[in-house]
Amino acid sequence: MDTSEQGNGDYAPIRDSEDPQLGKFDKPLPCFGCGIGWFSLLLGFACPLLWYYATILYFGNYYHKDPRERAGLAASAIAALVFTIAVLIAVLVIFL
Fold first, then answer.
1. Other CB atoms within 10 A of residue 22 CB
2. DSSP string, 5-73
């Protein structure tokens, strides 16, 4: 939209006609704006099953819906891996 056309009271579109994905990420992320991945990472310290839920979302390519979710989901997957290794080591030390 040209600036001369804005003067007649029309609203300017948020999306760019040449790049349709420009306005795609104007919405805030779910879970209080921090995204499912980071929210799962934080709450995973209280309930580690949330790390595994986020890992399933990560390997299920959930971040293709919104690429901003990728870092948080990856962090949760790493936390799930570290937690699993720590539990296995603890079980081996206790029972052997």
1. 13
2. HHTTTPPPPSS-SS-TTTTTT-SPPTTTTTHHHHHHHHHHTT-THHHHHHHHHHHTTGGGT-GGGHHHH
Instruction: Tally the domains of the chain.
Output: 1
Domain annotation covers residue 56:
yes
Q: Beta-carbon neighbour count of residue 31 at 10 Å?
A: 16
43-47, 53-57, 63-67: range with lowest mean pLDDT: 63-67
Residue 81, in any domain of the structure = yes
Quick check: is 87 in a domain? yes
Q: Which domain holds residue 40?
A: 34-93
pLDDT score for 12: 59
Span 21-36, average pLDDT: 74
What is the number of other CB atoms lying within 10 angstroms of the CB of residue 34? 16
**Contact (Cβ atoms closer than 8 angstroms) between residue 54 and residue 41:** yes
